[in-house]
Every structure is written in C-alpha cells, then in structure tokens.
Amino acid sequence: MSPFIAIVKRDLISGFRKKSQIYQPLVFQLLVVTMFPLGLGSGAKTLGIISPAVIWILALLASLLTLDQIFKNDYDDGSIESYVLSAYPLQLSVLAKALSHWILSGLPLVIFAPVLGMLLYLPESAYGALVLSLLIGTPIFSLMGSIGSALTMSLKHGGLLLTVLVMPLLSPVLIFGASSVVESSFGNPIAMQLLVLAGMLVLSLTLVPFAAAAAIKINLE
C-alpha cells in the first residue's frame, strides 16, 4: 500500500499548497446560495422546501469545477506515464487519485453543507440526512469524474467535454441524494435512498478503476 499512500500524500501536499481546489468549490457554493434568495424573492418556507435539491445541485456543480484536475497535472508533467509503466496496478493508482480528489474537494463540501442548509432554511430534521447522503454520494462524483478526466487529460480545454461525459452518469446520484434529504425533511424513512447510494458507491469502487485505467492507456496511445 506504500505507493497508494505516496500518491495520496503527494496530491494532498500539492492541493494544500495551491488551495484553489479546496476554496474554489466552497466559494462557488457560497456565492450561489447568497444570490439565490435574492433572485427567487421567496420566503423561508419556500427556500426550505427547495433547499435539498439546491444544495445537491450545487455540490454536483462544485465538484465538476475540479474534476479535470484529477489526471491533468500528471499528464502535463509526465508522471502519468510512470503510473502506467510501473509494476504497481494502475487501477489502484486511479483509486488513490480519486481518493485525494475527494479529500480536497468532496470532503469540504460535506463539512460545509450544514452552513448552506442554514442559509437556505433547511429543516433541522434533514441535516443528518444531508450530511450522510453527501458523505456517500460525493465519492461517486470523484470516482466517475476520474473516467472523464482520464479521457480528456490530453485536451487543453477539456472541462466542457468532461462535463458532458460525466453529467449523465452522476444524475442518478443527484436524484437519490436530493430525494433522501427531502424525505427526511418530511419525517419519512430514507433507508431505501441511502442503500441505493451505497450500492452506487460500491459499484463505482468496483468498476471505475478499470474503466479509468483503460481510458488512460487509450489516451496515451
């Protein structure tokens, strides 16, 4: 596991030095949330009803801002070739890259979510479901995004193409994640939605590393 840890540690050090991968999604969410009530012109009751969908959509869009960086920097400096040529399984290197991306961009979104819920008057009964659903769902964003990042890493401006490729894959996560928060706000059970999200996460952990590894090899060829 030492190469796995080394990749994660390298990306975390690089991310904390630049800090844009951490701050950019949070600032984006905060700006949209503060402007949303002004544009909507609605009261606390209406904002509380739509807040689960708004927060989940913002989490998805904020994640998309940094997905292209999962492999882009490694492609530019040539280190992606060392991952392919190394005896260490490329699939585990992909998992390490996805994990470091989630720690830098996904985990801050989960921690920051209650603040967004407070600004959008999310019912107090839904805070637990919000954090738990994002904790399960945001790693899927990083995993699925690694496929798009592997396919577009050689492009100078591949962010838009990556978004088009990844959005259909992430739509089910958005649907079930927002649904769990909505149902929780009404006091309904949310076990089904969380189990579906957990199943998506397990499926992503199983299949995505192989798909992203194949995309990297195709791109380098």
What can be said about this structure in brief?
This protein is an all-alpha fold. It is built from 9 helices and no strands. It starts with a helix and ends with a helix.
Task: Identify the notable features of this structure and list them briefly.
mainly alpha, 221 residues, 9 helices
Helical percentage: over 70%
The pLDDT mean sits at 88
- Count of strand segments: 0
- SSE pattern, N- to C-terminal: HHHHHHHHH
Radius of gyration: 18 Å
Total of domains:
1
Report on the biggest sheet.
Answer: none
Q: What percent strand?
A: under 5%
The shape, in one word, is: globular
- Taking pLDDT < 50 over at least 5 consecutive residues as the criterion, the unreliable ranges are none
* Terminal Cα span: 28 Å
The class by helix and strand makeup works out as mainly alpha
Number of helices: 9
Give a written overview of the molecule.
With 221 residues, the chain is an all-alpha fold. It has one domain. 85% of the residues lie in helices and 0% in strands. The protein has 9 helices and no strands. α2 runs parallel beside α6 and α7 runs parallel beside α9. The protein is globular, with a radius of gyration of 18 Å. The two termini are 28 Å apart. The mean pLDDT is 88.
Topology summary:
Elements: H1 2-18, H2 20-40, H3 44-64, H4 69-77, H5 79-85, H6 90-119, H7 127-152, H8 159-185, H9 191-220
